[in-house]
Amino acid sequence: MTTFFTGGCLCGAIRYECTGQPALSVNCHCRDCQKASGGAYTSSLFVPKDTLKIIGDVKYYDATGDSGQTISRGFCPNCGSALFGKPAIQPDLISIRPGTLDDPSKFQPAIDIYTASAQPWDYMNPELPKYPKLPPGS
Question: FRET label pair with 17: which of 5, 40, 44, 83, CA 20 to 30 Å apart?
Answer without folding.
Answer: 40
